Amino acid sequence: MRKAKLYNLLASIMMLVVALTSCEKFELGSSSGIDPHEANANVTIRVQEIQGSSVSPSTKATDNIVPLDKVCSRLTFAVFDGDEKLGAINQVSTDADFGTARFNLDEGEYTLVTIAHSGKGNCTLSNPEKIKFANNKLTDTFYYYGHLTVDEEGATTELNLKRAVGALHLHIDGNIPDTIKSIKFYYLGGSSTFDATSGYGNVNSRQTEQFSIEDGIRDFTVYTFPHEEEKDIKMTISLLNAKGETIKSYQKIDLKMKRNIISNATITLDNSDIKDDDGGKGNKDKGGIQISFDPSWEIEEDVDFE
User: Using an 8 Å Cβ cutoff, are 193 and 156 in contact?
Assistant: First the structure.
């Protein structure tokens, strides 16, 4: 009787194991970028160029090669079989193999999507047509979208990523009063969601970026994914006191933010315009973009704010 119960128990455990195994989904990699199937990897993907500039995983720059971690701090490699996402590898710049992904695939035709950026979290890449970023906050962003052919010997592919964003760079000139604690950018007409199949944004977003003004910071850069059909950007820049109240604002309703084009603007402060004498501590969030190297923008344009 005891043997029969033991056999029944073992049979139930085996059935449970089979059921769990049949439901398991195959994942290409981990958040560290290390492929759990690396011992059997037959596909190697390397980021070779970004916007035409050669990059290297090395932290030392040369005359013709730029360290990859000076361009971006995060990479996501995703592989699709038709509409089905097979898996993704997320990497950060401190990973040993940053810029190189290795995984195992059967012979066949696949779609490869790669995103490089410097956001605070990994991008969400469940669909190449709707790529989202943590808290809808954008940094300088680059992408690759294309076919991946795997034959009996596997595949080795070197990628040239292209810039996906347009940008506005703002410089503050003049004396910045102590009462100004932060700067806010609010803009309409762009997109915070990216479509890698077209290379453009595909959502009408209301984007907000806010930075603290401290330690002599005078330069700020904000980004958007432009739409394929050209749209004007309505941009409002507000200088805020410690309570978050607007001391002074500037606006432009027909700002052009095109892919791979950076617009430069300068606002000059006149102390006579600043009447708020609030002495609060203001926003504590750090401002500015930390990446120290940007591959060349195609065009730089100067714009004026009213």
Answer: no
**Maximum separation of any 2 CA atoms in the chain, in Å:** 96
87 three-class SS? strand
Consecutive H or E run containing 265: strand 261-268
As assigned by CATH, the class of the 166-303 domain is: mainly beta
Read off the pTM: 0.80
- Between CA 293 and CA 71 the distance in angstroms is 6
Q: Say which CATH superfamily domain 25-163 falls into.
A: Immunoglobulins (2.60.40.10)
Query: Could you tell me the sign of the dihedral formed by the alpha carbons of 69, 139, 79, 149, in that order?
Result: negative
CB 240 within 8 A of CB 283: yes
pLDDT band at 58 (very low <50, low <70, confident <90, very high): low
What mean pLDDT is reported for the chain? Answer: 82
Residue 80 to residues 24, 37, 42, 84, Cα–Cα distance (Å): 18, 18, 16, 5
For 12-17, what is the mean pLDDT? 50
Would you list the domain boundaries of the chain? Answer: 25-163, 166-303
Same fold, 25-163 and 166-303: yes
Total residues belonging to the chain? 306
Strand partners, 155: 43
